[in-house]
Amino acid sequence: MLSVRSLQLGYGAISAVRDLDLEVSPGELVAVIGANGAGKTTTLNGIAGALPVRAGSILLDGEDITRVPVHQRVGRGMSLVPEGRGIFARLTVAENLDMGAYLRRDPVGVRADLARNYALFPRLAERRSQLAGTLSGGEQQMLAIARALMARPRLLLLDEPSMGLAPLVTRLIFDTIRAIAAERVSILLVEQNARAALELAARAYVLESGEVTLSGPSEGLLTSDAVRRAYLGE
Amino acid sequence: MRRWLFIQALRLPLVPSAAGASASPLARGMVLALAVAALLLAPFLVDALLGRAWVRVLDLVMLYTMLALGLNIVVGFAGLLDLGYIAFFAVGAYLYALCASPHFGLYLPFWLLLPAAAVLAGVFGVLLGAPTLKLRGDYLAIVTLGFGEIIRIFLNNLNAPINLTNGPQGITMVRPIEVAGVSMAQVHSIGPLSIPALYNYYYLFLALTLLVVFVSIRLQHSRVGRAWVAIREDELAASASGVNTRNLKLLAFALGASFGGIAGSLYASFQGFVSPESFGLMESIMVLCMVVLGGMGHVRGVVLGAVLLVALPEALRYIGPMQRSLFGQVMVEPSDLRLLLFGIALVLVMRWRPAGLWPSPVRRREFAAAPAAGGSASTGPEPRP
Fold first, then answer.
1. What is the ipTM metric for this complex?
2. Which CATH architecture best describes the domain A1-77+154-234?
3. Mean pLDDT of chain B
């Protein structure tokens, strides 16, 4: 599905991500964990195309998309849920979802996906004509995910969906992510909440100062001493 | 009361959806017919009731409506603050003046110059837009302000070494518009009806203003319009939804500028004279005020803003003679009063109607919701289940 090879990303003179290799297989849920400033969001923005790639390559279904601009990657089946949710605060919930389907030309399919999203997030259905900015943090996160799903992606990029949410709400969001993954959507999840991410994902990468230091099946990482000490506080 | 009628005449055709949503088709037709009649008769009525000078004001109202609607595309729809918008008006005006005056001895026809002004201004719009794609808010405002001044200073100084613009003296004797062999500057008569020059311009400007209004409304409800709103709200999220933010921002700049260019070319022929001093920063701010006061992003509101800000200062001219008849002398110069009242009006509107005098339902909703949502900090990390 997604294959990232020796990716280099940075801002100005600062090199933020070095030599990153990453794979997501079809239908797989993969997590990237790491501390603040490890380069998780940079990695995801680079994959989504919001940040120019300095070196390396990004392949989607075997096709090189390294130089493809952000908006065209959406059409190729890759949707980003940006950090801090990035909803259109002064549009209604329904209008936000409508924007998610911006590139689609199949009104029937869009309507069906809208109904599925409202079934997946009943909270959003209740608030469909409310301004997105007036939603609670958890609802905004749900809206951001639902909007990305409206593009009917095959690969969903989630940037820190638990950011600023209460534990109970985080659990709700993570349950939803599991439900989305069950529908054969591949997911690349970037998370600071290492335990929740490892419990959800099949595989994970540990990012430290812009480099992958560990990777493998989540179970192995959950029991590894290094991860337990650094990220699980044990 | 008279002025109310006059304002009403201008806004009526724009409210069919508001007035006619629940009304019967017959009632809607009646409203439309009345509106058309009012717009067609406006110069006759205004002339009879208020005098010939007000017909001229009516013409200016049309010009500024076009300008304000052009700026509304950039500021209102796409959310890009442009403080140098009058530069595009200047580009259109100078193009017309240079190509239809004794300055170069060129007399190109109007039907060629009008689209040329739109295109050239659009090109200037892209020239301004391209280097500022990554800028937003106050930074963009500063660059656009500089751009506006650069254009004006160029016009002021391009009289040497080669005399292109005739410098501060400006270009005089710009030829009036001629449509199908009919000159706008002459009195024509249809049967017993005689139609003075100001009326001719009114009808021409009205036609083009209606076109600009129509294009604006169609744009607002199009895919392009929705993409602009998304860019205004959150650029990364917009591009992550598949919006080509670069092209759409350039399109906003180009379209907005071309409306300004059209208005500019009309202005040059209407005045018969252009000079750099008509295109200062104050003019840009004035047009921006029309957009903001009326209701940013709302076509009807912007039209109202243009009508009020052109007509009210003219109405203030009566204050001078009124003072003389009351006190025997002019105590406050009407022109001083104008800026004072303008400032007060701005403060009052921003305090009590921050979304504008006639905001779109969406904007009204936004401002009503703002206190509950904590304004734009709504994406802040508050853990609320």
1. 0.88
2. 3-Layer(aba) Sandwich (3.40)
3. 84
